[in-house]
C-alpha cells in the first residue's frame, strides 16, 4: 500500500526553485528566541544544548536513474544544488518560517507540510557536515580538511555499518520535537534524486535547567566541558591556522558515536562500582577525591587501603584534560532500530513465553533486556579529531566503563563555518562560482 | 559484549520487597504539579495531554526457566506480584520519587537509576491496561470485561504481529522524555521472571499550548473530542452500568492503532485533495462547509458544482458523531523499528547509490522514503469498543484518507479504574485476597 502511486500520475515540477523567503515572522510571544543561521560559526555547537536532537547522514546519488555512473562534475553540481536547497530551507526554518515548496512538487501542493504552524522556533538549529568520502566523490580531494579521514578501528568497537559513515550530515536540535520532525522532513524532501538517507538517530536531554544534564547511567555528563565564550572553548573547538585549507577556518570536526549502554548490567552493579567506573559520585557529580561537582579532581589522593580514590582505570583518570566539546544526547529506543542486522542474541518475536531459558535471573537472554537499545549519542566537537582518537584509544585499552558500554555506530564530519546571506554552506569549496 | 556477565556473579535478592515509600518530596518549585495515581479513574486519560508518550505491551511468563508450563494459579500469583510492584512504583514515580530498589538487585546496588534526580514529575502519568488473552492466562475468564475481545480484521489492515496485541499494557505520558525513560526502565526492571516486553512505541506532540495539536499531515487533530468534566466525556469514556462486571465500573477501554502515514505521497498531493480527505481546512481546522474550527460541519451544504463541499467519503463525514476520546500522539522513527520483518520494499542498506531505479522521482523505491516510518499512535479511550469498530469499518470501506495511511499495529485493553492507597490495580479481580 505504501508504494502504490506515490508521486505518480502528476506533472511534477522537477527542481523548481525555492520560493523567495518572505520577511521574518516574529516567533510567538513568550517563546524562546530564534537562533541565527548566518554568522561566523554554525549554530548548534556553542548554542546551549537544546532538549531534542535528530541526527542524520546522507550519501550523494552517484548513478543516474538507469544505474549509469554520473560524472564527477555532475555529482559536484548536484551537491551544490542540494546545499543551496538545504541552506535556504535551514535559514527559513530557524526563523520559524515555512521551509518553502519542495523541489519535486505538484501544482497545487501546499508550500509546507504545516506541521509546525503555530509553533515558535524553540531554538531550532540545523548544523551541516561533510564526510571524508564526499571530497573524493565531488572531486575536491585538495580541499579536504587535513584531519578528515575515517577513524581507526578501536579494539572495543562493535560497529554496525548501517549506523556508521556518511557523506553529508545534519544535526537538528531544538526544544520542540515537532519542529525538529518538521525540519527533518523539509530537508529529506529536498534530497530525492540528489542524495539518500543513510542513517538517522534521535536523542533527548531531561529538563535540568542550568544544572548539568544526566546521562542514562544517572551521572552528570558535561561537567568538564569548556564554556562557550572562553578562550579554552575557542581553542578546543574552532579550526584556525595554516595547517588547514583556508576555506575551513572557523569550522570544526564532529566525531559521532552511537554508544549502547548495558542498563540491566549497570542497574545490578553496586553504587561503588558505578562511581569508580566514572571516577565521580553519581549523586553530586563530585570527583571521588572530594569536594563538589566543579572541584578539580585530585588523582594523587589515596584511600585507607593506599589505593588512589580515583582509580587509574576510571573514565575520568583516562580521558582527563583532553580538549573537546562533548554535546551528547541520551537515546532510548526500547528495541533496536531496524538498521541493525539480527544477531544471535535477538529474541524479539521468536523468544516468546514458554521458550526455554537456563536461568531467567542470571542469563541475559532471560532478562527481557537483550534487544533493548538505549545509551548515548556521543558528539565531540573539536579542532583536532586526533584528540578524540587518543582518548578513545586509552578508553579501549583500560576504561572500567567498557564493561557497560558498546560502540555500535561511528562517523566523522567536517563542519564548515557559517556563511553570509546568499551563499550556501559549501560555497567556499567552489571558488570559481 | 552486551551479554557477558549480565546479572551474573552476584547473590541476587530475588523478589525483595519494595522499599516503603518515603514522604512526598515537593516537586521542584515552578514545575508543573504532579498528577495523582490514586482516585476514581486512572490518570493519563482525562489528564490534558502531555507532550511525550511511551506505550508498551508485555506478556506474562507462562513457562518456568526450564520451559515447563506454569500452573494457572502460579501465573495468577505472578501477575499479582507484578501489579503490586508496578502499582507501588507508579505511585512513587508520579510524585517525582525514586521508584525503589529493583526486585532483582545486588546488595549495594543503588535504589534507583538516578536518571531523573533533580527533575520535577512534569505531569508524569502511568496508565495500566489488561489485554483479552490475560483473562484466560490467569484463569479469570468470568471477570473479563464484556467487550474485551480481539478486534475484527478490517479490509485495509496491514498489521504486523510484532507490533500488535499484548496481555499487559502501560502508557507513560509526561512533559519530560527523561522522566518517561526513567519510569519505563523502573517498570521493565520489575518484569523479569514475571513478564516480558512484547512491543513499545514512542510519540510526541508539539508545544501548541491551548490550541489543538497538529498531526503530521499538518491538520489539527482532536477538535471534536468531548471535553473532560462534561457529561458527554463521562458518557463516552467511563464504563458504568450492569452489563459489565462490577469490578470494571469506572474503567474504560483503549483501542491502540499504529497508523503509518505516507508523507511523500501526502506532500505531493494538492492542498485541495488533502483538505477534502479530512473534510476540514488544514490551516484553521474549520469544516469545509465554513466557519471556524469549532463551527458545526454542515454536511448538506453543496458547492457550485452541486456536490457536497464536505465529501461524503471524507474522514469527517464518515466518522462524525461516534463517541470516543482520541488521545493520540505523533511518531517519527525515520527508519522502521526492528520489530517489522523486512519486506520487498525495504531498501535500507541494500539500496545504495549506483543501484538501478526506473525513475527516482516517480518510483516510490527511488524517493528514499520507502523505509520511512512516521504517523500516528492512535489511542481511542471509550466505553464501548464497538463504536471504534463501527468507525473503523466505515473508514476501511470508503475513507479518502486510506490512500495515505496504513494500519500496521493494533491492540485493545481494558483499563481498570484507579485504586485507593495500599491496593494494586488489579486487586478487584481477586476478591478473596
Ligand atoms: C557511554 C559512554 C560514556 C559515558 C557514560 C561517559 C560519561 C562521562 C562522565 C560522567 C564524565 C564526567 C563528567 C563530565 O566531565 O562530563 C565524563 C567525562 C569525560 N568524558 Fe566521557 N563518557 C562516555 C564516553 C566518552 C568517550 C567515548 C569519550 C572520548 C573518547 C569521552 C571523553 C570524556 C572527556 C574528555 C571527559 C572530561 C574529562 C575531564 O577532563 O575531566 N567520554 N564522561
Ligand atoms: C492517520 C489516521 C487519522 C488521521 C490523520 C485522522 C485525522 C482526523 C482529523 C484531522 C479529524 C478532524 C479534527 C478532529 O475532530 O479531531 C478527525 C476526526 C475524527 N477522527 Fe480521525 N484520523 C485518523 C484516524 C482515525 C481513526 C482510525 C478513527 C476511528 C476509527 C478516527 C476517528 C475520528 C473521529 C471519531 C473524529 C471526530 C469526528 C467528528 O465527530 O467530528 N480517526 N480525525
Structural overview:
Chains A, B: Residues 341-367 have a biased composition (Basic and acidic residues). Chains A, B: Its cofactor is heme b. Chains A, B: Residues 212-419 form the Dyp-type peroxidase C-terminal domain. Chains A, B: InterPro entries: Dimeric_a/b-barrel, Dyp_perox_C, Dyp_perox_N, Dyp_peroxidase. 2 copies of one chain form a homodimer. The first copy, chain A, has helices spanning 72-94, 132-137, 177-188, 231-237, 263-267, 271-278, 315-319, 385-398, and strands at residues 52-60, 125-130, 168-174, 195-204, 252-261, 325-326, 329-335, 372-382, 405-415. By secondary structure, chain A is of the alpha+beta class. The first copy, chain A, has 2 domains: 4-18 and 35-105 and 112-153 and 164-255 and 413-429, Apc35880, domain 1 (Alpha-Beta Plaits, 2-Layer Sandwich); 261-411, no CATH class. The interface between A and B is large, with 130 and 129 residues. The complex binds protoporphyrin IX containing FE (2 copies). One protoporphyrin IX containing FE binds next to strand 5, helix 7, strand 8 and helix 8 of chain B.
Amino acid at each position: 500500500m505504501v508504494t502504490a502511486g506515490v508521486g505518480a500520475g502528476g506533472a511534477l515540477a522537477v527542481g523548481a526553485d525555492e520560493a523567495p523567503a518572505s520577511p521574518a515572522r516574529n516567533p510567538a510571544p513568550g517563546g524562546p528566541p530564534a537562533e541565527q543561521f548566518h554568522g561566523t560559526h554554525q549554530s548548534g555547537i556553542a548554542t546551549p544544548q537544546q532538549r531534542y536532537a535528530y541526527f542524520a547522514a546522507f550519501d550523494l546519488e552517484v548513478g543516474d536513474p538507469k544505474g549509469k555512473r554520473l560524472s564527477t562534475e555532475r555529482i559536484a553540481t548536484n551537491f551544490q544544488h542540494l546545499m543551496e536547497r538545504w541552506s535556504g530551507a535551514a535559514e527559513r526554518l530557524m526563523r520559524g518560517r515555512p521551509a518553502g515548496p519542495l523541489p519535486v512538487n505538484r501544482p497545487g501542493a501546499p508550500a509546507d507540510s504545516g506541521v509546525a504552524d503555530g509553533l515558535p522556533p524553540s531554538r531550532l538549529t540545523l548544523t551541516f557536515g561533510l564526510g571524508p568520502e564526499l571530497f573524493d566523490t565531488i572531486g575536491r580531494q585538495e580541499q579536504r580538511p587535513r584531519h578528515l579521514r575515517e577513524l581507526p578501528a578501536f579494539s572495543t568497537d562493535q560497529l554496525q555499518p548501517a549506523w556508521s559513515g556518511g557523506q553529508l550530515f545534519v544535526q537538528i536540535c531544538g526544544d520542540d520535537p515537532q519542529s525538529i520532525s518538521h525540519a527533518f522532513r523539509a530537508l529529506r524532501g529536498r534530497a530525492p534524486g540528489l542524495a539518500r538517507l543513510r542513517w538517522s538517530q534521535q536523542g533527548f536531554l531531561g529538563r535540568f535547567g542550568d544544572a548539568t544534564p544526566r546521562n542514562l547511567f544517572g551521572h552528570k555528563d558535561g561537567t568538564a566541558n569548556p564554556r562557550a565564550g572562553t578562550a579554552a572553548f575557542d581553542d578546543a573547538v574552532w579550526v584556525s591556522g595554516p595547517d588547514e585549507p583556508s576555506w575551513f577556518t572557523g569550522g570544526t570536526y564532529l566525531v559521532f558515536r552511537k554508544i549502547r549502554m548495558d542498563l540491566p548490567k549497570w542497574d545490578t552493579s553496586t553504587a561503588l562500582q558505578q562511581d569508580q567506573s566514572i571516577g565521580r559520585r553519581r549523586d553530586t557529580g563530585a570527583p571521588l577525591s572530594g569536594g563538589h561537582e566543579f572541584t578539580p579532581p585530585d588523582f594523587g589522593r589515596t584511600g585507607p587501603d593506599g589505593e588512589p580514590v580515583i582509580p587509574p582505570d576510571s573514565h575520568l583518570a583516562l580521558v582527563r584534560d583532553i580538549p573537546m566539546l562533548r554535546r551528547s544526547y541520551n537515546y532510548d529506543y526500547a528495541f533496536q532500530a531496524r538498521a541493525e542486522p539480527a544477531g544471535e542474541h535477538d529474541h524479539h518475536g521468536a523468544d516468546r513465553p514458554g521458550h526455554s531459558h537456563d536461568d531467567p535471573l542470571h542469563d541475559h537472554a532471560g532478562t527481557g533486556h537483550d534487544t533493548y537499545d538505549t545509551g548515548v549519542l556521543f558528539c565531540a566537537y573539536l579542532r583536532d579529531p586526533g584528540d578524540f582518537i587518543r582518548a578513545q584509544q586509552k578508553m579501549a585499552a583500560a576504561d572500567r566503563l567498557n564493561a557497560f558500554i558498546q560502540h555500535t555506530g561511528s562517523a566523522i564530519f567536517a563542519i564548515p563555518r557559517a556563511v553570509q546571506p546568499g551563499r550556501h554552506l559549501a560555497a567556499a569549496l567552489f571558488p570559481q562560482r
